[in-house]
Predict the structure.
Amino acid sequence: MKTTKFKTYSLDEVTDEFIGKKGTPERDKFEFELKMDLIGEMIRETRKEMNLTQEQLGKLVGVQKAQISKIENNTKDVRFSTIMKVFDALKAKVKFTIEFDKNNQLSIA
């Protein structure tokens, strides 16, 4: 009986192949959007742990329920100041780093 061996690939190898190598604009955009998705999911989970509806969190922040939904679902047209208000309402400790490279591109970690 003949066995077939499959080559395995790491996540980095697959991402390099299909998204782009680290440092390329495509990869940077992908990684930024992934981080934003994760932030939205963390906000949703924390809101639920605090037994808050989107509407209740919106009232705490001073925005409509729709804005909270946009943040949780990573819609692109959300103001940074609104996200910071959400973090404040959820009593989140926020730390991030902003770096500009030699081409004045923004990197957020």
Remarks:
- The chain is about 55% helix and 5% strand.
- The beta strands are 98-100, 106-108.
- The chain has a mean pLDDT of 85.
- Residues 25-49 form the longest helix (25 residues).
